[in-house]
Amino acid sequence: MAVLSPPTLSPLLLNTKSDFGSPPSLPLLPFSSTPNTRFSSHLSVSYSKSENGLGSEQKKILLERYGYDIDADEYFSHSSSKSKRRKESLKRKGGKQVEDPPEDPKPPRTTHKLLQVLGGTARRVKLLSPKGMDVRPMMEVVKGAAFDILQAAGGCPAALRPGRWLDLYSGTGSVGIEALSRGCSEVHFVEMDPWVVSSVLRPNLEETEFLDASVIHTVRVEKFFERAEQFVGNSGPFDYISVTPPYTQVDYGVLMRQISESSLIGENTFIVVEYPLKTDMLDSCGNLVKITDRRFGRTLLAIYGPTWSQKKRR
């Protein structure tokens, strides 16, 4: 004679709530056991005053006995709560799914004519410059002072000594164009922004008719120095170098060391450096000495040159 096991509680009743923590009065649903079962199972259920009726550990044991996937239950409960929060969010927004507005496209870059050539053959010719602060040309008062100092130090107050100029971080090209207007024979412009080159620098060179005396390098200054011979060949050092970088994007110590160690400077080179307050500039750059260091508001101007230029400037 087969031994029948007592009825076993259905998991369908596990989450039935009771107001007073006592077992629910609903009838238990029996599961029929197989006739050839040789053992009986006895399930002891204790109720607590929790909302679900069963203790958490006992509930877990009972569910696992019925092959219930505890991990899946937690996953879907989590998903359900997320879905509920999403529905509540949509309800607060009138029941409609509101998507984040797309980012406004950047406005097209434009130019204006606020700069001009200060001296020489192209004097008073207006130059293009970008609107906004992405390109910051050298202030005209600083540029005028720089060329006055260079001309006096070179022994020719009326014009620059003839030579080749390297305009680093050239932007609008106003410094190199000023050099061409005042007597330089050739200028190499180094500017990394293709839009500035095509929409500002090249049109300025065409307007001043200096395009044939110019070489444009659309490359970062660091890369230009790493491959200097590839860009300028074996034509020797430059007579002038202007350094007018965006203040916050360069390390002046690293930059000046890179310039001083380059074959692009010689014993008679002049270097013009524009830099901000609270920047320590060395008294020399390679074999060149600082011949002036002037302040214009928040902008400072340092000029390095050969030792003989100090005597001529005095």
Automatic annotation (TrEMBL):
The keyword Transferase applies. Residues 96-107 have a biased composition (Basic and acidic residues). SUPFAM superfamilies: S-adenosyl-L-methionine-dependent methyltransferases (SSF53335). One of its GO terms (molecular function) is methyltransferase activity. Residues 77-111 are annotated as: Disordered. It holds the Pfam family Cons_hypoth95. It comes from the Eukaryota. GO terms for biological process: rRNA methylation. Residues 81-95 have a biased composition (Basic residues). InterPro entries: RNA_MeTrfase_RsmD (IPR004398), SAM-dependent_MTases_sf (IPR029063). Keywords: Methyltransferase, Transferase. This is rRNA methyltransferase YlbH. The lineage of its organism: Eukaryota, Viridiplantae, Streptophyta, Embryophyta, Tracheophyta.
